[in-house]
Amino acid sequence: MLPLVLVNAFALMMPAVEMIAGAALIMGVWRRAAGLLAAALCAAFMVAIAQAEIRGLEVECGCFDVSGMSATQATWGLFVRDLGLLAASVLVWRKG
User: Fold this and answer.
1) Distance CA 72, CA 17 (A)
2) Contact 60/73 with Cβ under 8 angstroms?
3) With 0-12 CB in 10 A as exposed, 13-18 as middle and 19+ as buried, what is 39?
4) What is the per-residue pLDDT across 10-58, written as a single tens digit (0 to 9) for each?
5) What is the distance between the terminal CA atoms of the chain, rounded to a whole angstrom?
6) How many Cβ atoms from other residues are within 10 Å of residue 59's Cβ?
């Protein structure tokens, strides 16, 4: 999905971006910006899941796992769940 030179930078940056968006949503600050950021993250994850499924890759995504020992497979079911999260994020962005 990304040029090889950007993979490590994105991998290091993504958790911080997710935490900032989540914290802003929980605290109710910068609601529109946080909703837009959450929607963008959901869309990016959905693209990653879709391309992995289309290519037949078996990818463990670590979604909703805090133990570091994920067994969550990136599947179409996960894609549908992310579609719901995307809809909620867009709703937060639009309602601000």
Assistant:
1) 21
2) yes
3) buried
4) 989 999 999 999 999 999 999 999 999 999 999 999 998 999 899 998 8
5) 31
6) 16
**Sign of the dihedral defined by the CA atoms of residues 3, 8, 9, 12, in that order:** positive
- Please state, in angstroms and rounded to a whole number, the distance separating the CA atoms of residues 90 and 96: 10
> Which has the closest alpha carbon to 45: 6, 80, 20, 92?
80
Angle of helix 31-55 relative to helix 4-27, nearest 10 degrees? 140
The answer on pLDDT for 63 being more than 90 is no
- To the nearest 10 degrees (0 to 180), the angle between helices 31-55 and 76-95 is 160
| Tokens at 48, concatenated | 């990653």
